[in-house]
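Dear support,

Our group has been running a series of protein-ligand predictions, and this particular one with iron/sulfur cluster is the one our PI (initials K.S.) wants archived with full inputs and outputs. We had some confusion internally about which version of the output was final, so please treat the block below as the authoritative record. The input we submitted was:
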Amino acid sequence: MNENVYKRNELLAQKVIQSLKSRNMTGYYAADKEEALKLALDLIPEKSSVTMGGAMSAHEIGLVDKLKEGDYNFIDRDACEDKRAAMLMAYDADVFLSSANAITEDGVMVNIDGNSNRVSAIAQGPRKVVFIVGMNKVCDDIDGAMKRARNVAAPTNAQRFGLSTPCAKTGSCFNCKSPDTICCQFLITRYSRHEGRIHVILVNDGLGF
Ligand code: SF4
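Confirmed final output from the archive:
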Protein backbone atom coordinates (compact mmCIF):
# COMPACT_ATOMS: atom_id res chain seq x y z
CA MET A 1 0.00 0.00 0.00
CA ASN A 2 1.15 3.53 -0.78
CA GLU A 3 2.75 5.14 2.26
CA ASN A 4 0.51 8.22 2.15
CA VAL A 5 -2.65 6.14 1.81
CA TYR A 6 -1.51 4.07 4.78
CA LYS A 7 -0.94 7.21 6.87
CA ARG A 8 -4.30 8.67 5.83
CA ASN A 9 -6.02 5.39 6.83
CA GLU A 10 -4.27 5.52 10.18
CA LEU A 11 -5.69 8.98 10.88
CA LEU A 12 -9.12 8.18 9.48
CA ALA A 13 -9.37 5.06 11.65
CA GLN A 14 -9.04 7.23 14.77
CA LYS A 15 -11.99 9.33 13.60
CA VAL A 16 -14.09 6.21 12.99
CA ILE A 17 -13.13 4.80 16.41
CA GLN A 18 -14.25 8.01 18.14
CA SER A 19 -17.50 7.93 16.18
CA LEU A 20 -18.14 4.31 17.14
CA LYS A 21 -17.61 5.23 20.78
CA SER A 22 -20.34 7.87 20.51
CA ARG A 23 -22.63 5.06 19.28
CA ASN A 24 -21.89 2.72 22.21
CA MET A 25 -19.68 0.48 20.08
CA THR A 26 -15.97 -0.18 20.55
CA GLY A 27 -13.47 0.39 17.75
CA TYR A 28 -9.88 -0.83 17.53
CA TYR A 29 -7.11 -0.01 15.11
CA ALA A 30 -4.95 -2.79 13.64
CA ALA A 31 -1.90 -1.76 11.64
CA ASP A 32 -1.97 -5.02 9.67
CA LYS A 33 -3.60 -8.46 9.47
CA GLU A 34 -1.38 -9.92 12.18
CA GLU A 35 -2.38 -7.23 14.64
CA ALA A 36 -6.03 -7.68 13.68
CA LEU A 37 -5.78 -11.41 14.42
CA LYS A 38 -4.30 -10.74 17.84
CA LEU A 39 -6.99 -8.16 18.68
CA ALA A 40 -9.76 -10.52 17.57
CA LEU A 41 -8.41 -13.43 19.63
CA ASP A 42 -8.17 -11.13 22.67
CA LEU A 43 -11.91 -10.49 22.28
CA ILE A 44 -12.83 -14.19 22.05
CA PRO A 45 -12.25 -16.15 25.26
CA GLU A 46 -11.31 -19.83 24.89
CA LYS A 47 -14.28 -22.24 25.14
CA SER A 48 -16.57 -19.60 23.56
CA SER A 49 -19.15 -20.70 21.05
CA VAL A 50 -18.34 -18.81 17.87
CA THR A 51 -20.14 -18.56 14.58
CA MET A 52 -20.06 -16.28 11.60
CA GLY A 53 -21.89 -14.93 8.62
CA GLY A 54 -19.77 -15.28 5.52
CA ALA A 55 -17.04 -12.91 6.66
CA MET A 56 -14.23 -13.11 4.11
CA SER A 57 -12.20 -10.67 6.20
CA ALA A 58 -12.14 -13.09 9.14
CA HIS A 59 -10.68 -15.73 6.81
CA GLU A 60 -8.18 -13.27 5.35
CA ILE A 61 -6.64 -12.37 8.71
CA GLY A 62 -6.34 -16.08 9.60
CA LEU A 63 -8.98 -15.94 12.36
CA VAL A 64 -11.17 -18.79 11.13
CA ASP A 65 -8.24 -21.23 10.99
CA LYS A 66 -7.17 -20.24 14.51
CA LEU A 67 -10.68 -20.80 15.85
CA LYS A 68 -10.94 -24.20 14.17
CA GLU A 69 -7.56 -25.27 15.55
CA GLY A 70 -7.98 -23.80 19.02
CA ASP A 71 -10.03 -24.51 22.12
CA TYR A 72 -13.25 -22.93 20.86
CA ASN A 73 -16.67 -24.26 20.02
CA PHE A 74 -16.59 -23.05 16.43
CA ILE A 75 -19.91 -23.69 14.72
CA ASP A 76 -18.99 -24.21 11.09
CA ARG A 77 -22.19 -23.60 9.18
CA ASP A 78 -20.64 -24.86 5.93
CA ALA A 79 -19.82 -28.20 7.53
CA CYS A 80 -23.27 -28.65 9.13
CA GLU A 81 -25.78 -30.79 7.28
CA ASP A 82 -28.67 -29.03 8.97
CA LYS A 83 -28.13 -25.43 7.84
CA ARG A 84 -31.22 -24.19 9.62
CA ALA A 85 -30.07 -25.65 12.93
CA ALA A 86 -26.64 -24.04 12.44
CA MET A 87 -28.26 -20.69 11.71
CA LEU A 88 -30.44 -20.93 14.81
CA MET A 89 -27.41 -21.77 16.95
CA ALA A 90 -25.89 -18.46 15.89
CA TYR A 91 -28.51 -16.55 17.85
CA ASP A 92 -27.35 -18.10 21.09
CA ALA A 93 -23.60 -17.98 20.36
CA ASP A 94 -21.14 -16.18 22.59
CA VAL A 95 -19.49 -14.51 19.60
CA PHE A 96 -20.63 -13.76 16.06
CA LEU A 97 -18.04 -12.75 13.47
CA SER A 98 -18.85 -10.48 10.60
CA SER A 99 -17.44 -7.90 8.30
CA ALA A 100 -19.33 -4.85 7.07
CA ASN A 101 -20.24 -4.11 3.49
CA ALA A 102 -19.39 -0.51 4.33
CA ILE A 103 -18.82 1.78 7.30
CA THR A 104 -19.13 5.53 7.33
CA GLU A 105 -16.56 7.91 8.74
CA ASP A 106 -19.04 8.66 11.51
CA GLY A 107 -19.31 5.02 12.53
CA VAL A 108 -22.50 3.73 10.89
CA MET A 109 -22.30 0.26 9.35
CA VAL A 110 -24.24 -0.95 6.33
CA ASN A 111 -24.85 -4.63 5.59
CA ILE A 112 -27.03 -6.25 2.96
CA ASP A 113 -28.13 -9.85 2.96
CA GLY A 114 -30.04 -12.39 0.92
CA ASN A 115 -30.75 -15.16 3.45
CA SER A 116 -30.66 -12.51 6.18
CA ASN A 117 -29.14 -14.78 8.82
CA ARG A 118 -26.11 -12.47 8.98
CA VAL A 119 -27.96 -9.20 9.40
CA SER A 120 -30.41 -10.70 11.88
CA ALA A 121 -27.57 -12.05 14.07
CA ILE A 122 -25.82 -8.68 13.95
CA ALA A 123 -29.03 -7.02 15.09
CA GLN A 124 -29.75 -9.33 18.02
CA GLY A 125 -28.94 -12.69 19.55
CA PRO A 126 -25.21 -13.39 19.91
CA ARG A 127 -23.74 -11.96 23.11
CA LYS A 128 -20.85 -10.30 21.30
CA VAL A 129 -20.40 -9.30 17.66
CA VAL A 130 -16.86 -8.82 16.35
CA PHE A 131 -16.52 -7.03 13.03
CA ILE A 132 -13.30 -7.27 11.02
CA VAL A 133 -13.31 -4.33 8.61
CA GLY A 134 -10.62 -3.32 6.13
CA MET A 135 -10.09 0.42 5.68
CA ASN A 136 -11.17 -0.08 2.05
CA LYS A 137 -14.75 -0.24 3.42
CA VAL A 138 -14.77 3.28 4.90
CA CYS A 139 -17.09 5.70 3.06
CA ASP A 140 -17.87 9.39 3.54
CA ASP A 141 -21.51 8.98 4.50
CA ILE A 142 -24.57 6.71 4.33
CA ASP A 143 -25.15 7.45 0.63
CA GLY A 144 -21.59 6.42 -0.15
CA ALA A 145 -21.91 3.34 2.07
CA MET A 146 -25.12 2.22 0.36
CA LYS A 147 -23.54 2.75 -3.06
CA ARG A 148 -20.51 0.74 -2.01
CA ALA A 149 -22.69 -2.08 -0.64
CA ARG A 150 -24.73 -2.28 -3.84
CA ASN A 151 -22.09 -1.58 -6.46
CA VAL A 152 -18.98 -3.19 -5.00
CA ALA A 153 -19.89 -5.74 -2.32
CA ALA A 154 -23.11 -7.15 -3.80
CA PRO A 155 -21.88 -7.72 -7.38
CA THR A 156 -18.72 -9.40 -6.11
CA ASN A 157 -20.70 -11.63 -3.75
CA ALA A 158 -23.20 -12.45 -6.50
CA GLN A 159 -20.32 -13.51 -8.74
CA ARG A 160 -18.73 -15.50 -5.92
CA PHE A 161 -21.92 -17.51 -5.38
CA GLY A 162 -22.66 -17.88 -9.11
CA LEU A 163 -25.98 -16.04 -8.82
CA SER A 164 -28.02 -14.90 -11.75
CA THR A 165 -28.36 -11.19 -11.01
CA PRO A 166 -27.76 -8.19 -13.28
CA CYS A 167 -24.91 -7.02 -11.06
CA ALA A 168 -23.11 -10.36 -11.40
CA LYS A 169 -23.12 -9.85 -15.19
CA THR A 170 -22.39 -6.14 -15.36
CA GLY A 171 -20.62 -5.27 -12.09
CA SER A 172 -23.11 -2.67 -10.93
CA CYS A 173 -26.53 -2.57 -9.31
CA PHE A 174 -29.76 -2.54 -11.32
CA ASN A 175 -32.04 -2.49 -8.27
CA CYS A 176 -33.28 -5.89 -9.40
CA LYS A 177 -36.05 -8.07 -8.08
CA SER A 178 -34.55 -11.25 -9.49
CA PRO A 179 -35.13 -14.48 -7.51
CA ASP A 180 -31.39 -14.64 -6.86
CA THR A 181 -31.10 -11.11 -5.48
CA ILE A 182 -28.89 -10.81 -2.42
CA CYS A 183 -30.41 -7.45 -1.55
CA CYS A 184 -33.37 -8.73 0.47
CA GLN A 185 -32.56 -6.97 3.72
CA PHE A 186 -30.51 -3.84 4.46
CA LEU A 187 -29.23 -3.36 7.99
CA ILE A 188 -27.98 0.03 9.15
CA THR A 189 -26.24 -0.25 12.49
CA ARG A 190 -26.16 3.23 13.97
CA TYR A 191 -26.15 2.56 17.74
CA SER A 192 -25.79 -0.37 20.12
CA ARG A 193 -28.26 -0.56 22.98
CA HIS A 194 -26.04 -3.13 24.71
CA GLU A 195 -22.77 -1.92 26.19
CA GLY A 196 -19.81 -4.10 25.15
CA ARG A 197 -21.70 -6.07 22.51
CA ILE A 198 -20.36 -4.64 19.25
CA HIS A 199 -16.62 -4.48 18.56
CA VAL A 200 -15.13 -3.24 15.30
CA ILE A 201 -11.53 -3.95 14.34
CA LEU A 202 -10.42 -1.56 11.61
CA VAL A 203 -7.54 -3.05 9.65
CA ASN A 204 -5.15 -0.87 7.67
CA ASP A 205 -5.33 -3.13 4.66
CA GLY A 206 -7.77 -3.99 1.88
CA LEU A 207 -9.94 -6.87 3.12
CA GLY A 208 -12.94 -8.55 1.59
CA PHE A 209 -15.04 -6.66 -0.89
S1 SF4 B 1 -30.43 -5.26 -6.19
FE1 SF4 B 1 -29.94 -6.92 -7.64
S2 SF4 B 1 -28.57 -5.96 -9.15
FE2 SF4 B 1 -28.58 -4.64 -7.33
S3 SF4 B 1 -26.82 -5.31 -6.14
FE3 SF4 B 1 -28.65 -6.38 -5.36
S4 SF4 B 1 -28.65 -8.33 -6.44
FE4 SF4 B 1 -27.30 -6.94 -7.57
